[in-house]
Amino acid sequence: MTLDAGPGYSSYQWNTGDTTRSITIKSNSLSPGIYTYRVTVSNAAGCEATDSIRIEVKQKTETEIHTLSVKIYPNPASHHLNIVINGAGERIYRLQLYSINGQLLNTYLLENQQENIHLTIDVSGYPAGLYVLSLISEKTTKTCKVLIE
Predict the structure, then answer these.
(1) What domain count does the chain have?
(2) pTM of the model
């Protein structure tokens, strides 16, 4: 984030110690809290003005802290489908397999005890076609298309 005091002044004095027209704030390196940035500007005649801005940095939510990625292989599949879930920050997930028409075909309940989950499901009993696989938790849903040959 860049804070700019504007053009046309002969000097700039920020409460950070900077003496440039603008400063860059790296908000991702700030701890949660309220920060006040103040700048005093003066023109060639010696007139001064001061302005300030308050910036509030909030705590990251659990969703932002955990990045969930889902890898499905092989795709297309004929006998078995491997599902790897990385960054599984929640304890219970529901994996649901739908036909392309939206009919629920199967539900798998996954109780997570670790960050990564590896699951193999048998798809040999399903006719060839396009399917939708949804991973559902209390806070997120990931949906992937799966081709069964």
Answers:
(1) 2
(2) 0.53
